[in-house]
What does this fold into?
Amino acid sequence: MTKVYENVDRIEVNRPEQRSGYAARVKIHPKRTHGTFRTLKWWVMAITLTIYYVTPWLRFDRGLHAPDQAVLVDLANRRFYFFFIEIWPQEFYFVGGLLVMAGVGLFLLTSTVGRAWCGYTCPQTVWVDLFLVVERFVDGDRNARIKLDATPWGFDKITKRLFKHAIWLLIAVSTGGAWIFYFADAPSLAREFVTFNAAPVAYSTVAVLTGTTYIFAGFMREQVCTYMCPWPRIQGAMLDEHSLTVTYNDWRGEARGGHKQRRSDPATAYGDCIDCNLCVAVCPQGIDIRDGQQLECITCALCIDACNSVMARTGRPLGLISYSTLSDYTAHKAGTRDPDHWPSFIRPRTFIYILVFAMIGLGLLVLLAMRDRLVVNVLHDRNPVYVQLSDGTIRNGYTVKILNKRTEPRSFRLTIEDLPGASMYLAGSSEEARDALIVAVEADRLKAIKVYVKADPRTLHERETGFKFVAVDVNGGDTADVARSQAAFERPRKHKKDEEHD
Ligand code: SF4
Ligand code: SF4
It folds into this structure.
């Protein structure tokens, strides 16, 4: 008779009695599997790695005076560029908003499809998968790897180990290398890096990320998820009975038993699980999903693929291990629900998450569309607050800061509003006081100027008179950027007889 399934000699190395903070790690040798979820994981892996490695090399034309890297965290100039969006430090609320959206998105994802983030897109999962590809390529699949590990050191083993670790290190260096390109112009930094002209911080960052990638993905693997990552614990609070999790449908699988056992015990009503252990052998976390939900399970669904392949080969219905919700599982067990029932994702909780996510996103878009590309800030001199000049006029000093947020140099006409008869001049300038000043500001820069404003005290009824500085883009035409900033002009207190005279 042809053998249609494979019994894997396995032990779930991450079983509860093995989990101790002091126990030495037992190496897991995940077996390769094929199927829908494995294919999906290959796609997600390819897409996420491509995004990570390629993004810093994408160009985006912002004109002459701004960097042309599409995604750039420009620490030196304190800017964040994302294609057509440019975030200044004072606009950090955009980044805050995006982080809140990411958090809410993760809540939404977890409450509907469980730990999909962990199983498919988490960097630890993606890089472990990548390192496993290399391991399988060099050492072979599970049995060959177990055998090689047990083999005494010899030429073949040393060669394979050197080859595998060299590729791992290459991937680790590329990972660290790609990261620094997000913080400077990628082509220039690459040139400086290979000619040893880059800043020391670039080398140390690459060294740290190379080390962490190599150790986390090459050696620690599932231990990062089990012991280091807080997310599995947080998720416990987010999952509910309607969240999808990878589930062993014991109501269908038990009593489990192999073919030999079934033949020798015809009286027992066996379920669909033939106890082949393939689901355990493929698990990168080293657990047996048939023990129930476990914190270690990252819901990568590889055990679903493995079990489905067994079910297909033995002529049983697929889905002995499947994505299922606790409520579906319980109902199935009680035999009260249509076996084809599709879990409901639309429930108050997910609706609230979607609403919050959409509202924050919409709010950020509105803010983005409405944000000023010209900002004026004014600081009144406090010492002295005012000076009485020989011609009887009063002079107040101000520091006016003009922020040009566009990526081209611009000139602004600075005027005074609501202070009748006032004029101004630049501190240190020998020019006559005027109604307006022309201030040139470089692209994407802030310019601070010291301005003196003069006014006749007889025209001022209050000791402190509010007025505005107004800046207008000289070449802006009808749609010119305009910015106003409130200020106060102060004069000395009048003598009583003057006040009576007024
Ligand atoms: S039990 Fe299944 S879903 Fe969970 S980590 Fe293992 S293979 Fe992935
Ligand atoms: S659940 Fe499926 S893969 Fe796992 S032992 Fe049973 S039949 Fe084999």
Remarks:
- The chain has a mean pLDDT of 88.
- The chain is about 40% helix and 20% strand.
